[in-house]
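## retry 2 of 3
previous attempt timed out at serialization; input unchanged, resubmitting
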Amino acid sequence: MEHSELSVVIITFNEERNIQRCIESALKVTNDIVIWDSFSTDKTREICERYPVQFFQHQWEGYSISKNKANSKASYNWILSLDADEALSEELVKSINDLKMRGLVPAQFARLTNYCGSWIRHCGWYPDQKWRIFDRREVEWRGVIHEALTWKSAGETKRIEWIVGDCLHYSYYTPEDHYRQADKFVRIMAEEKVKEGKRTFWWMRGLSPIFKFIQMYFLKGGVLDGWSGWKVCSRSAWAAYKKYQYWYELQHLKHSNQ
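## retry succeeded, writing output
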C-alpha cells in the first residue's frame, strides 16, 4: 500500500565522513533512497554507489530548491528528509517502521547533536524538534537558510504526530568546523536581512552575544553539559556577534552606494 511506503531523501556535498552512516541507518526504514549531490569533490559519490540508492548530481541552487527537486525524484510520495550528517537511532527506526505499519502521517521527532564527541542535551539544542516525515503532494521546503516545511495550500494545517527516538546529528567534529559553518550561515542571514530592508545598529553587535550566552548557558541549561556546553554557548555567542557585524557592514555599504 503506497500510504505505507516511504522514500528517504538526502542532499550532499563533500560528506564522505558522514554519508555511509546516514545511508545504512536509512536502509532500515526504506528501499528507496535518493541522494541529491552538488558535485562533491571528495569520495561522497564513490561511497553512495556502494549502496542501492538513486544518485543524482546537480548544481547547487540553495537548500529549499535542492530539497524540493530531490523530493521529486523519490519513488514514493511520502518522504523522510535527512541531512547527510544525521542518522536514525534504533529507537527512531522502530518508531518509523511502526508508523509505516499503521499508515504514514506527518511526523516529527527529536534531534540529538554530537558536538566534538559529546552529546549536547541542553543549551537549547535538545530536543531539537524536527518535522521530517511528510507527503510531498501537500508540503514543500521554503526559505533561504533554516529552510522549513510549509503547507502548499494557504491556511492548510494538519496534526503532526510526535514519534519517539532521536535523530543523531553529527554536527561538528572540531571547533574549526563550528566556526566555519557558523560563519557561512551568519553571512547568508545578514545578506537576507539587508535584502529584506531590515536594519540593525552598531550597539547590537555588543549586546547580542551577551544575551545569547546568558540564554543558552544559564536559561537553557548549557552549564549542565559541562565543558562542551561552555564551548557550544561561547561559540554561539561569537556567531551572534559576527551576524550583527556582517549585517551592519552590508547595511552601511548598501547605503553608501545609493
